[in-house]
Write a structure and sequence with these properties.
Strand content: 15-25%
Largest sheet: 8 strands, parallel
Oligomer: single chain
Bound molecules: pyridoxal-5'-phosphate
Number of strands: 8
Helix content: 25-40%
Number of helices: 8
Amino acid sequence: MNIQNNLAALKDQLSENVDLVAVSKTKPIEDILQAYHAGQRIFGENKIQEMSEKQQVLPKDIRWHMIGHVQRNKVKYMASFVDLIHGVDSLKLLKEINKQAIKHQRTIDCLLQVHIAQESTKFGFDANELKTVFDELSQNTLPNIRIVGLMGMASYTSNMNQVKSEFLSLKNLFDQFKQTFKLTVLSMGMSGDYEIAIACGSNMIRVGSRIFGERKPASP
Ligand SMILES: *Cc1c(COP(=O)(O)O)cnc(C)c1O
């Protein structure tokens, strides 16, 4: 597995307006450093503890993205450094992030996760809930949170038509809200479907195995 070559090949395919989150979950420090030395600065993790351990020993100009499901009681461990939280799926969680952001005198950027997959196992708001959350946010009760966009995961399926229609439904929601709420980030697409995601309007992809190789049996 040549991380630098994988990264270069991937970047060649991406136009400038698409940000690449290198998903380094379960991967060792040495692998992350290889990508770092090849110029990569945004890394994604799905466990807060693992992210914070890595953050402590790695270069400080890395921008850490939390891409996994977030437990409220763990927000405090990343509030001082996290650059973007992708998986925000409840108002309660937003309130906790706001509280911790205030403690650290910073504003934390977040994406609202939208449930676009047919699978019920995936997290996220549906379209109606999204409207409620945006309404609530427009009251300015959470001053240290900035919602900068939406995130979604397509179904785990080989049916690419289904994946495409799920991505298009998220793009549609993004377009619906982007002007009013100044959204700029649409995070969708992983190793298996980033090309479709970009064709559907994604401007942030989260790619792990294409860069770092397969992971050991998936952790939940
Ligand atoms: C693991 C993960 C990815 C990356 O998956 P790959 O298939 O390895 O590219 C992207 N997004 C989320 C939310 C993940 O948990």
